[in-house]
Amino acid sequence: MSTSRLYLTTALVLSLSAGFAPAAFAQGSAQATPAADEQPTEVVVTGQRASRRSRLDTLAPVDVVTAQSLQTQGSTELAQGLSRVAPSLNFPRPAGVDGTDNVRPASLRGLSPDQTLVLVDGKRRHTSALVNVNGSTGRGSSAVDLNAIPEIALDRLEVLRDGASAQYGSDAIAGVINLHLREADHGAGVSVSYGEYDTDVDPANSSRHASDGATTNVSGWVGLPLGSDGFLTISAETRHRAPTSRGDIDALVSPAVVTSRYGDPAQLSASVFINAGKPLNDNWTLYGNASVSDLNSKSAAFFRHTNASGNIPEIYPFGFLPIINAQSKDYSATVGARGNIGEWTSDFSLSAGGNKLDYYTLNSVNPSYGAASPRDFYDGQMKYDQTVFNADISRPFAVSGWASPLTLALGLEARQEKYAIKAGDVASYALGSDTTKSAGAQGFSGFQPSNVVDVDRNNVGVYADVAADITDRFSFDAAIRAENYSDFGDNVSGKLAARYKLTDQFALRGSVSTGFRAPSLAQQYFTSTASVLDTSGSVGKIVETGTFPATSAVATALGAEPLNPEKSTSYTLGGVWHSGPFEVTLDAYSIKIEDRILLSENISRTFSTQVADLLAPYGVSAARFFINGADTTTNGVDLVANYRLPTERLGRFNFSLAYNHNETEIDRLNPLNNSPLDPQPVLFARVRQVILTNSSPEDKATVGVDWNAGNWTVNGRATYYGDVIDPASVQANDIHSGDHTLVDLSASYRFGTGTTVTLGADNLFDEYPDATPANLNITSGNGVGALSFTRFSPFGFNGRYIYAKLSQSW
To answer: Counting C-beta atoms within 10 Å of the first and last residue's C-beta, which end of the chain has fewer, N or C?
Structure first.
């Protein structure tokens, strides 16, 4: 679907939502709201292949997040909203890291973003084609873009905080996020919101007031009947966001002003999600969903000064600010049928999805082309596609003397993946006639023909899961899964979980599991290189430097080997206590991961004559590649508590507390076992090690109060973020975010016509991470003054956001 057609379709759905006004009001959810003194009755499906249990009866910790709790926030980004209510999920807002500015990853329990599996209605969601190769959280990962999924399309989310590879396959080392789509055969809703940052920016060398980042979001949904017993739910969203700028002044220009644009990118997005279900007969139901989303995002690289080597003064006499334009398109479709085959409950489905990411560099120059250089460049494309077939069956078997039947679940998943890189325009990467200048577009150099990739792989996994209540107090769940990948072979994972109820109010639960994450195709085959002129010999020649596949001749010569899967062993132990309107869960965990896949440092020919000799035949001056670089251990604890308080005069209150403590340590750094180099270069420097262990806060806590009386609703939340380190090569130069607490507040009034008006402020008291000390900011070269606040801040660095929202439901 073209971009213009997608935006037209989005507008049509929103218009349909606004104009569809049947007499009955539908919430799009069949779940009833419990009375204030009753326990919630949500049925959790994530992490339980062979059984279905209520939220407080699960054998592993699961957070249930309703769409309503997300929509009461100012943020219209799914990942941002989810990070504020899920205790162990973090969503930093990095800037100045090229493509990661535009497609930002989220992480669970401080682990890599690609170590959390994302499902949509229980089916595996495709990842982004982006590889995060720069200095940010999640360096080296390719993760699911949660923000490609509109909040309006969801009914609720389940966050399983436990390893689940034995049940779902690769990627579920940290846990699982399962997104449940809205199901409605009638009703509709539309929402329009507008907000912007109103903030005082105080970096080390300046101070100013900013009003920017204006964001307009329009979303809607409509439920339609399919015959007398089916449903068709269409949801759509469009968002326009202006950029933010939080850099410090540039002392190299006169007068000294802010020349950077360090902050959120400008974005224009649209998405459409369709979900449908239709009984075929008394036994079988046909279901399906489809989505398409389009994101046009423009972030800024560092400013190039007039006299910079990367500038052509004839084109930009006053310098220039390169713009990195990422155009991301996501698409997915699932069709399936569920029903009974004899005594077996069955579910068969086929899913396909992918992401296409095109890069452009705008307002730039290729210095080696001189005054003839273009100003705008097409840099090439990365593309990822997957097709998944699932077959799941289950049935209960009576066991004499047991409190419940033993349920056996069996299943198969077959998956095909494809990954490709397409070269950009010649001028985006080439070295022109002026060989004293750098090659390629300034800000983001294009992919070269030598970087072109077109690969695929297949894998098949089978699992068995058994669960039962042996007594009224003791329950267990056991699973085993075997996988075969066409590129690296076999893997077997297992899990055992149990729950024991000591009293009617208190129960203990725990699990032990092994898991794995297959190396992604991007990690195996991503390559991005730049051409430079080598003048070390008597005759100059062009050589390459950059990222190479681990299986390439260059990497193999230095000792690289084909990537192995990451393997994990996880332990959890916790307790659940509830009495009337009060409930609390406390869960401790330990996750040991072997052979974590990491991106190495650049190995340069200047390291030794031995490296120079090895690289010379390939025309390469420096190379880096992915390796199974480290073993780590992550330990932590999650505390979640809720208390519901009804009053006769003051309305209903809901108090919540969520706390996560999380620490990651490196147990071992793995050498290149086949390397001929002696000595070996540093493969994983201090900066990379600290990013791995300290790029997420060790402590995060949220206290929330929701109040409802009549037509009024007020939501308040205070979130504490512990210190995060932005590392340097020596500890004395580390930058710290500091300990900070952010307060969010919103108030809504619902009129009898179904119209709701909301006013609110996120980060009400305009909190920022600690400013970067002036001597540790960029003081020379490109981007002077840009990095005024750490890009590792767990809550970003944009300041106070004020918004208003108007919603109408029918």
So the answer is: N
CATH number at residue 549: 2.40.170.20
Query: DSSP of 9-75, one letter per residue?
Result: HHHHHHHHHHH---SS---S--PPPPPTTS---PEE-TT-SS--EEGGG-SS-EEEEEHHHHHTSS-
pLDDT tens-digit map of 561-597 = 999 999 999 999 999 999 999 999 999 999 999 999 9
What residue numbers bound the domain in which 287 lies?
3-809
Question: Alpha-carbon torsion 10, 13, 14, 15, what sign?
Answer: positive
Instruction: Count other Cβ atoms within 10 Å, centred on residue 711.
Output: 11
Angle (CA) 678 682 685, round 5°:
170
Angle among Cα 728, 731, 737 to the nearest 5 degrees reads 70
For residues 26 and 38, give the distance between their C-alpha atoms in angstroms, rounded to a whole number: 23
* Residue 144 CB partners (closer than 8 Å, separation 6+): 113, 118, 125, 126, 127, 128
The total domain count for the chain is: 1
Q: Give the DSSP letter of residue 5.
A: H
CA distance 763 to 794: 13
The neighbouring-strand residues paired with 345 are 340, 394
Nearest CA-CA partner of 167 in 346, 47, 62, 53:
47
* Cβ atoms of residues 44 and 62 within 8 Å: yes
The whole-angstrom separation of Cα 576 and Cα 39 is 13
Chain centroid to CA 328: how far?
15
